[in-house]
Design brief:
The protein is an alpha/beta fold and 279 residues long. The protein has two domains: 47 residues; 163 residues, Ribonuclease H-like superfamily/Ribonuclease H (Nucleotidyltransferase, domain 5), CATH 3.30.420.10. It contains eight helices and five strands. A five-stranded mixed β-sheet has the order 3-2-1-4-5, sandwiched between helices. A hairpin with a 5-residue loop joins strand 2 and strand 3. The longest helix has 28 residues. The chain is elongated, with a radius of gyration of 34 Å. GO terms for molecular function: nucleic acid binding. It comes from Blastopirellula marina DSM 3645.
Length: 279
């Protein structure tokens, strides 16, 4: 032991038999409760009659290399900025529909949800689905009714909400041939037309009346939608109402469809008529 540096001589402690026994029991409890931390496991040990404080429990926990695993976040569909409304604007009626949820409550404090569907080109509110809870199946049923009434749109713009990214909706829309434009997460301005509609709905309807019940909310939402479509002028539409603008779009589409046939008939009438020589 002579001529050895003092720093090389260290005491190596041996774990006590009690610590070994406690660690073994801790590991057994962790296998049963993998989401519990050391505080909850310590309480279980105390209920079993073990005498140990929180500091000792934490020391044994760290020595065993234990750690509560981090929660795994569900993989969400991530949109891109190229799907924004100013990058891919609607070019004609029923080109792009947009939909989104807003939330309010009835006078008894219970939550009520609104699913709003708007035609971006005409600003026409196609539907306001009202319910305590609106699932992806409810959203599909609402879209199916609108498709039967107005036809199938070319594209639908939305955010990355759980209802919109569900496999049921994505599979159904893909089967029909509707392209879904998912905006970039955390960028509501990329779905600006629907956000603007939601603000009008809150300001002119939800903040101006009390919702007595679910049925009362549905009746009032239906009346407000009719007023919005037929009586509220929009500066972006040349101060026409959405219904007036939609009728003009439908009329111009009909005229445009007739033009090729009219030009074809005019060209036929202008052709020289050859007479057959009779001998």
């Amino acid at each position: 032991m002579l001529d050895q540096p003092r720093s090389s001589q260290r005491f190596e402690g041996k774990p006590k038999d009690e610590d070994v026994r406690l660690t073994k029991r801790i590991l057994e409890l962790v296998r049963q409760r993998p989401r519990w931390g050391y505080r909850q496991i310590c309480q279980l040990l105390r209920r079993e009659g073990e005498t140990l404080n929180m500091k000792k429990m934490y020391r044994l926990w760290k020595a065993a290399g234990l750690k509560v695993p981090q929660k795994r976040r569900k993989k969400r569909a991530t949109g891109v900025s190229t799907n924004a409304c100013h990058v891919q604007p609607a070019g004609f009626r029923h080109d792009v529909w947009t939909w989104d949820f807003i939330q309010s409550s009835t006078i008894d404090g219970r939550t009520i949800r609104f699913l709003n569907i708007v035609d971006e080109y005409t600003r026409q509110c196609l539907a306001i689905k009202v319910g305590r809870s609106i699932t992806s199946e409810d959203a599909i049923d609402t879209l199916a009714e609108l498709f039967a009434m107005h036809g199938v749109p070319k594209r639908i713009r939305c955010d990355n909400g759980p209802e919109f990214i569900s496999c049921a909706i994505k599979t159904w829309l893909d089967l029909i041939g509707v392209e879904v434009l998912y905006i970039e997460p955390g960028s509501p301005w990329q779905n600006g037309l629907c956000v603007s509609f939601n603000s009008r709905l809150r300001d002119e309807y939800l903040h101006q009346t009390d919702l007595l019940s679910l049925e009362d909310a549905r009746i009032k939402a239906r009346a407000w939608r009719e007023d919005f479509n037929h009586n509220r002028p929009h500066s972006s539409l040349g101060y026409l109402t959405p219904a007036e603008f939609a009728r003009r779009c439908a009329a111009s589409t009909s005229v445009a469809a007739l033009l090729p046939f009219q030009q074809h008939s005019d060209s036929i009438e202008s052709l020289p008529v050859s007479q057959t020589n009779l001998s």
